[in-house]
From TrEMBL:
Signal peptide: none annotated. This is Glycerophosphodiester phosphodiesterase family protein. Gene3D superfamilies: Phosphatidylinositol (PI) phosphodiesterase (3.20.20.190). It comes from the Bacteria. It comes from Streptomyces mooreae. PROSITE patterns: GP_PDE. Pfam families: GDPD (PF03009). Residues 3-224 form the GP-PDE domain.
Length: 227
């Protein structure tokens, strides 16, 4: 199986994160998969942004959930980019996507878009929240999902199996060879984040990971020489 490179929020090491510019750059750099984050606007749009508020990544302030899409569109998300919605990303790039959902409400909205646009084969749904993954699988039978973990424990494999996930996306700083082997024995793929240096890439290879999430285009280039 090939070693996956996943563009974190597009290519956020060199472009404004979670913008169309960032996603297009990730595809141009040859990343295998592009990861993005979803929240719901006040009027129910699937807004592509990592944080629950706009403070860090735009020139605005306040929660996404308290603004309509039209109000969010007025903000500068970096280098003149506007905050995109999920449907625009689907049209802007052709690469497979990982869509991270923060809550069950976003799962409902995402399921509707994926069903109407026949995206089940192209989009994997990922989340830190077990209940959100369980919800999307109920809404979209057959969808591929991944459980994300930062401060996870040894039970993360069991949690992934319980919600029908096929992949774990885990903070590489906590990963052990034992956990990776246990996940593989349970037929789960394991990717590590965030891998931005050659040392981290060597660690990922040594752990036997199935791929990495990265901010940097040079990691994609380096993978070609470490296969």
């Amino acid at each position: 199986m090939s070693f996956l490179t996943i563009g974190h929020r597009g290519m956020m090491g060199v472009e404004p994160e979670n913008t169309l510019r960032s996603f297009v750059r990730a595809e141009h750099e040859g990343l295998d998969v592009i990861e993005l984050d979803l929240h719901l606007s006040k009027d129910g749009a699937l807004v592509v942004m990592h944080d629950a508020d706009v403070d860090r990544t735009t020139d605005g302030a306040g929660p996404i959930a308290e603004r309509t899409l039209a109000e969010l569109r007025e903000l500068d998300a970096g280098r003149g980019e506007r905050i995109p919605v999920f449907e625009e990303v689907v049209e802007a790039v052709k690469a497979p996507l990982q869509a991270e959902i923060k809550d069950v409400a976003a799962a409902q909205a995402l399921a509707e878009v994926m069903r109407s646009r026949d995206l089940v084969g192209r989009v994997d749904v990922i989340s830190f929240h077990d209940e959100a993954l369980a919800a999307i699988r109920t809404l979209l039978p057959g969808v591929r999902t991944a459980l994300v973990g930062s401060r996870y424990g040894a039970d993360v494999v069991d949690r992934a199996q319980a919600v029908g996930a096929t992949m774990l996306s885990l903070n590489i700083r906590r990963l052990t060879l034992e956990l990776v082997e246990r996940a593989h024995a349970a037929h789960l793929k394991v990717v590590g984040w965030t891998v931005n240096t050659h040392d981290q890439l060597r660690l990922a290879r040594g752990l036997g990971l199935d791929g990495v999430v990265t901010d940097q285009p040079e990691i994609r280039r380096a993978v070609r020489f470490t296969a």
